[in-house]
Automatic annotation (TrEMBL):
It comes from the Bacteria. This is Gene 36 protein (Modular protein). Residues 11-60 form the Helix-turn-helix domain. NCBIfam families: excise (TIGR01764). One of its GO terms (molecular function) is DNA binding. InterPro entries: DNA-bd_dom_put_sf, HTH_17, SinI_DNA-bd.
Length: 69
């Protein structure tokens, strides 16, 4: 009998995004208010696509500096 793992979530709530970013929920809510992080509204619930969180991380990743000799 094979057991298939549950599918990965497509949407995070604010607390899950905060955990993924290593930040506070207050920062996540500010990013949402400033339209830096798109949301999906399901009734009164606010959710953020996992792909949007990944895109935010990619867009804000710092690139290593090379030293000039």
């Amino acid at each position: 009998m094979t057991h298939t793992p549950p599918p990965s979530p497509m949407l995070y709530d604010v607390a899950q995004v905060a955990t993924a970013l290593g930040a506070s929920t207050r920062l996540v809510r500010r990013l949402i208010a400033e339209k830096q992080l798109p949301t999906v509204r399901l009734g009164r619930m606010i959710r953020i696509r996992v792909s949007d969180v990944e895109a935010y991380i990619t867009a804000h990743a710092s690139t290593p500096q090379t030293a000039e000799a």
